[in-house]
Design a protein that fits this description.
Layout: H1 3-6, H2 10-30, H3 52-80, H4 91-111, H5 118-143, H6 149-153
Helix pairs in contact: 2-3, 4-5
The structure holds protoporphyrin IX containing FE.
Protoporphyrin IX containing FE binds next to helix 2, helix 3, helix 4 and helix 5.
């Protein structure tokens, strides 16, 4: 039995969580726009990665999948503390997710036509990009750091 067998959704949930974050990072950085500038669009099969609308639609899909999985985990945790082999291990991880969802949600409202003062927009961009970078590096570090036993038993740390 691996640690994933104790975690709700097993390996499927682990893969979906990884795919959601991977797509969010790829589509997010692509919207900056980076991929034309660094010739990623000239790689065969990646010509579309210079299309802002396609990247934005992909980002919204990734964001919805990501928020859906996180909401599912939180809901199960309120029931009786799950055993989790994926997702945040500490308040640092949960804080970054909260910043990503709140700043991302506000940016989505802006895209939907809600007026936000320029200073607020600039702050939102910094918070969203900053928490995305911190989330990416924390995730990379945690890939190489094994989960302590209590995280596999005790649910939300
Ligand atoms: C793992 C989660 C996420 C990562 C790594 C991520 C990363 C990024 C990055 C790097 C950008 C481009 C920089 C910027 O414009 O600030 C971006 C833009 C954006 N993100 Fe996210 N994001 C994530 C989750 C979300 C969520 C949950 C939402 C919505 C609730 C969201 C909504 C947006 C929006 C609306 C934009 C701006 C696109 C535009 O310019 O129209 N993101 N994201």
């Amino acid at each position: 039995m691996s640690k994933h067998d104790y975690s709700p959704g097993g390996r499927v949930a682990v893969w979906l969580y990884g795919i959601a974050i991977g797509l969010a990072l790829f589509s997010g950085f692509g919207q900056m726009p980076l991929y034309n500038r660094y010739y990623l669009t000239s790689v065969p099969g990646l010509g579309w990665s210079g299309n802002f609308i396609a990247l934005s639609e992909l980002h919204y899909f990734a964001a919805a999948l990501f928020m859906g999985l996180v909401a599912w985990r939180l809901a199960l945790d309120t029931r009786a503390g799950g055993t989790w082999s994926w997702g945040p291990r500490s308040w640092w991880g949960w804080s970054l997710i909260a910043l990503l969802v709140l700043s991302g949600g506000a940016k989505a409202l802006r895209n939907a036509g809600v007026f936000l003062p320029p200073l607020a927009l600039m702050l939102l961009d910094f918070v969203h990009l900053g928490s995305a970078m911190a989330f990416m590096f924390s995730g990379l570090v945690s890939l190489f750091r094994p989960r302590k036993k209590q995280y596999l038993r005790g649910g939300l740390a």
